[in-house]
Design goal:
The complex is a heterodimer of chains A (about 300) and B (about 450).
Chain A lengths: L1 H42 L2 E2 L8 E2 L3 H7 L2 H33 L5 H13 L2 H11 L6 H8 L16 H7 L6 H11 L4 H9 L4 H12 L1 H14 L5 H6 L11 H9 L6 H29 L1
Antiparallel strand pairs in A: 1-2
Chain B lengths: L1 H22 L16 E7 L4 H14 L3 E7 L2 H13 L6 E4 L3 H6 L6 H9 L9 H10 L7 E8 L1 E5 H6 L8 H14 L4 E4 L5 H14 L3 H8 L6 H15 L12 H9 L3 E6 L9 H6 L7 E5 L12 E10 L6 H12 L2 H7 L21 H15 L3 E2 L4 H15 L5 H12 L6
Parallel strand pairs in B: 1-2, 1-3, 6-7, 9-10
Antiparallel strand pairs in B: 3-9, 4-9, 5-7, 5-8
Helix pairs in contact in B: 2-15, 5-14, 9-11, 9-17, 14-15, 17-18
Classes of the chains: A mainly alpha (about 300), B alpha/beta (about 450).
């Protein structure tokens, strides 16, 4: 009893010390985050340039402009498309590669590293490389088609408005390192007895994969889906370096839309703030769903 | 223990005082002006020209003014548009600043000193006699009628730079009409099926906009009517310009491959000898000079300049031109007198001629000339004269609204790649222009 009491007391002191250590960081974090929100909210109601001089209060005018801008919604849609491509590649290629790498195969570590390396490389580098690979005249892809006599398949991957967004999305296939890592970690938690039972029940490889392992990893799927969905709002370099939002704005995403809006001489920063606020609200809704889903699982 | 506490307290006090003094305003010793005879360093922030382009001019200025040193910070144009206003609003240590003659000038004019007050002391009461009246008027228009910026260069776009050797190889003359251009393109493609007849950065929306507006300029000053008098984008004039540009693509003069090239790739195609004609602004005029080409590692033998051949028979060979780069003195600078001296040297003094050798544009200095020594062939010399003529006789101002140029260029791209009709693209553009995003 005495011991328990002592432990509780020590625990309480530890908590207090912990909070004291956390306090400076907490103040800075809340201060910066709070100020960022305050800054965005206040300026979203103003017509103001980047010097923040001569600001005019314009009420909801900036929001009206953004909401009625076709370009903004197209950018939003493209952002979700890009996220969907990331999710699709993660849940399919990522899943299967993780399963294969889970077998006792030679060179397992090497393949792990091979699939993970692209995820560690700066995305700007990947985008620049893919940009040149997919070029019409001198790009490797088209040159291969031409060399093997399939010139008809050579396309203007980044200049054709029907193909450009898919060409940008295709880079997602090289960004499956993180999903592989998630799956690999969770695969180790699956008890071998479950798989043995499935084998005894006559389940073949395909059935084990689709009816046993895939459902068991549902929490990993959710984590991947939600993190990649939110990650879409942080995408920028891929589109900026591959197509710069073109051709004709068909590959514009939220990141490039906001970036472009801030970088024109004399541009109204209020508009940018309003756009950022709308994006923030959408991201909050997604995060809320994520919280709900994960708490249900818990 | 007590000694430890006292030492710690003393150290803390010293550090606090150090921090407070460190956080204070900038070094007052730097506030001496050129009159004091002590060394002065002027901080010059700009996006243009590059340090290489201005190096010789700065060295000459520093030789003439041994107590003034120039510390130049150059950044990419868009980054400069973003960082300079912010830096000025927080009173960073900047004395001379590059001024983009656009909404940027209006945005930063509150931070610029009145040059009408500073220039007489720097260069004499009659300094305006040395400076182009037109440039003064255009600059003043951007800064509420006051002289807060002076022009470094005037530019025009789009200008065609052609590879003289390749043109000679196909036995053709510089085309001036659409039909002539078509013949040149056919001849060239016959001889060099893998090379470009014409090349420009069609992937960059603003370049596409410049090309379309050059075609618009061939028919008159409608651009100015739109820019200053509220004329519409969805108009017959714009429609003719967009369709006019499309004609070059439809007739095979421009290849759809251009829509895949950015600025760097397009330049590279020309400088590597893979293109006959390269379209860009007059700021690419250094391509005309063998010396400057050599300095930039370009191995082309001979380059000339031309206007875009007219899309319609009644069109004029022309460009849009405007003051392109400006310079001003920061009002809160404590070295304004020295800064004005530097600005005067670059705009109306000997510096204008030294810098002029870089061929980045025409100067606002009234008696500005470029030495013929820079040109080793008749074509390059004629090319420079063509550029000067085009800039001086432009039908419209190249007074762009940069954000809108990107949007308009994207719409032009949509028409050129066939995903939109010209009519629909222009309707969308009118809506975009009236959306309130560019007011």
């Amino acid at each position: 009893m005495k011991n328990t009491k002592g432990k509780l007391k020590i625990g309480g002191n530890h908590n207090k010390a912990g909070y004291i250590f956390l306090l400076p960081l907490l103040i800075i974090f809340i201060g910066l985050l709070g100020y960022s929100f305050y800054f965005l909210i206040i300026n979203s109601f103003k017509d103001v340039t980047i010097t923040f001089r001569h600001a005019d209060f314009t009420g909801l005018e900036n929001y009206k402009t953004i909401v009625s801008d076709f370009g903004f919604w197209r950018a939003m849609l493209n952002t979700f498309l890009l996220s969907t491509a990331n999710i699709f590649c993660g849940l399919t290629f990522g899943f299967f590669i993780a399963i294969i790498l889970n077998f006792k195969i030679k060179g397992k570590r090497f393949f792990h590293a091979l699939f993970f390396i692209p995820s560690m490389l700066p995305i700007a580098l990947m985008a620049a490389v893919f940009g040149s690979i997919l070029e019409y005249k001198n790009g490797i892809v088209n040159n291969i088609f031409r060399t093997v006599g399939l010139s008809g398949l050579a396309q203007r991957w980044l200049a054709d408005p029907k193909l450009a967004i898919w060409a940008v999305c295709s880079v997602s296939i090289f960004l499956i390192g993180i999903p592989i890592m998630y799956y690999t970690a969770d695969l180790t938690t699956i008890s071998s007895s479950i798989l043995e039972a499935a084998t005894i029940d006559g389940a073949g490889m395909r059935h084990q994969l689709m009816l046993v392992i895939f459902p068991i990893l549902k929490n990993t799927h959710k984590t991947i889906i939600l993190s990649m969905l939110l990650g879409g709002f942080r995408e920028m370099e891929r589109v900026f370096l591959m197509t710069d939002g073109g051709p004709g704005g068909t590959t514009e995403i939220i990141g490039t839309y906001i970036y472009r809006a801030t970088r024109s001489a004399g541009s109204n920063i209020g508009l940018v703030c309003a756009a950022a606020m709308i994006v923030l609200i959408v991201a909050f809704v997604i995060s809320f769903i994520q919280l709900k889903l994960t708490s249900k699982n818990g | 223990m007590k000694l430890k506490k006292v030492t710690a307290l003393a150290l803390a006090t010293i550090m606090t005082i150090g921090m407070i003094s460190g956080c204070g305003s900038s070094d007052k010793s730097a506030s001496k002006d050129s009159g004091s005879g002590e060394d002065i360093t002027l901080n010059y922030w700009t996006w243009f020209p590059s340090t290489d382009q201005l190096d010789e001019t700065i060295r000459a200025f520093e030789k003439e003014n041994p107590n003034i040193k120039i510390n130049m910070t150059v950044m990419e144009s868009k980054a400069f548009q973003e960082k300079a206003p912010l830096a000025l609003s927080t009173e960073e240590d900047i004395d001379v600043v590059g001024v983009q003659p656009s909404a940027f000038a209006e945005e930063i004019q509150d931070y610029l000193a009145d040059l009408d007050e500073l220039m007489p002391a720097a260069v004499g009461d009659k300094w305006k006699d040395l400076y182009s009246e037109k440039c003064l008027e255009q600059g003043n228009k951007l800064t509420d009628g006051k002289t807060k910026m002076l022009v470094l260069t005037n530019s025009g776009s789009m200008v065609g730079f052609y590879n003289v050797a390749l043109l000679k190889e196909i036995g053709a003359e510089v085309p001036t009409t659409f039909e002539e251009y078509k013949v040149v393109a056919e001849k060239f493609k016959e001889k060099y099926p893998d090379k470009y007849t014409s090349v420009f950065a069609g992937k960059d929306a603003w370049v596409m906009d410049e090309m379309m507006l050059t075609v618009l300029g061939q028919q008159g000053d409608y651009y100015n009517q739109w820019r200053y008098d509220g004329a519409k984008v969805d108009s017959p004039e714009y429609l003719a310009a967009v369709n006019g540009l499309k004609k070059y693509f439809d007739e095979g003069i421009f290849s759809a491959d251009l829509l895949d090239l950015d600025y760097a790739s397009a330049t590279e195609e020309f400088t590597n000898g893979n293109a006959l004609i390269y379209y860009m602004g007059s700021w690419e005029a250094p391509l005309l000079s063998a010396t400057l080409r050599e300095n930039n590692g370009i191995e082309l033998e001979n380059v000339g300049a031309m206007a875009l051949p007219t899309a319609e028979d009644n069109g004029q060979l022309t460009v849009r031109s405007y003051i392109d780069s400006g310079i001003g003195v920061v009002d809160y600078s404590e070295k304004k007198e020295a800064a004005a001296k530097f600005v005067a040297y670059l705009t109306v003094g000997d510096g204008a001629d030294i810098f002029g050798k870089q061929l980045t544009g025409t100067s606002a200095k009234t008696d500005f000339t470029v030495s013929n020594e820079l040109f080793d062939t008749q074509e390059s010399k004629d090319g420079w004269n063509t550029i000067v003529d085009l800039i001086n006789n432009a039908t419209a101002d190249r007074n762009n609204v940069s954000g809108y140029s990107d949007a308009e260029g994207a719409a032009v791209q949509s028409v050129m790649n066939g995903s939109k009709t010209a009519e629909n693209a222009l309707k969308d553009m009118q809506k975009e222009w009236a959306s309130g995003k560019y007011n």
